[in-house]
Specification:
- The protein has one domain: Four Helix Bundle (Hemerythrin (Met), subunit A) (Up-down Bundle).
- The chain starts with 7 loop residues before the first helix and ends with a helix.
- Helix content is 79%, strand content 0%.
- The protein has 210 residues and is mainly α.
- The chain is built from six helices and no strands.
- The longest helix has 42 residues.
């Protein structure tokens, strides 16, 4: 059974154990999926209401896209687990001879690159969810505006958490040029989207405190 198909309590207990998976990457994907789901909920509470008829088509388009984001993030929970397990095994791989050491180094470099891709994918999905949360916060039902703000801030946290999983892997890479490229991809997203999420959150707070 895939980890995303387990109960919430099982997942949390497994996370708290010594088991190597799930870890920060899969949790980031789950948090991002929850954030995206909140955005979709705002849409569900908006469409069909006369008060929001003029933005209904736009909200429907956003709902369709945020559902895709949610589904991608749910799939990434398992992908992160699947990609980490072989990397974890490599750390314990026997390497006594020069040939064994060279082969281990080659396999490690490949696995580290692969282990960076999933958290980068998580970050990209969270970035889009943050963009969509801004629409839900601005144009969605006022009765659910707090959920739009929560969507933004959850996806921000998921993005930041996922970036740490990139950095911990690039830190171990021998190919420093590739590591710098992956780090820059993280930095570019972190330079834009957390601030966007904070702006959505701030706008929602301002509305609620009127």
């Amino acid at each position: 059974m895939k980890y995303a198909e387990r109960s919430c309590s099982w997942f949390v207990d497994e996370l708290a154990s010594k088991a190597p998976v799930p870890g920060g990457g899969s949790v980031s994907a789950l948090v991002g999926a929850l954030g995206a789901a909140l955005g979709d909920m705002v849409g569900e509470l908006t469409v069909g209401k006369k008060k929001y008829a003029d933005v209904e088509n736009e909200i429907k388009d956003c709902m369709q896209e945020v559902c895709q984001v949610k589904d991608q993030l749910m799939a990434l929970i398992q992908q992160d687990i699947d990609i980490f397990e072989p990397l974890s095994a490599l750390y314990g791989m026997k390497a006594d001879t020069d040939e064994e050491k060279a082969e281990k180094a080659r396999l490690m470099e490949k696995a580290l690159r692969q282990a960076c891709q999933v958290p980068l994918d998580i970050m990209e999905q969270c970035a889009r969810a943050i963009e969509l949360s801004a629409v839900f916060a601005e144009k969605g039902s006022r009765l659910a505006v707090s959920d739009a703000g929560a969507s933004a801030i959850l996806c921000k946290s998921a993005m930041q958490a996922a970036s740490l999983n990139v950095y911990i892997n690039t830190n171990s890479m021998k190919d420093r040029e590739k590591a710098a490229e992956l780090n820059q991809a993280c930095a570019d997203m972190l330079a834009k989207y957390p601030a966007m999420a904070d702006a959505v959150f701030g706008a929602v707070v301002a509305q609620l405190k009127k």
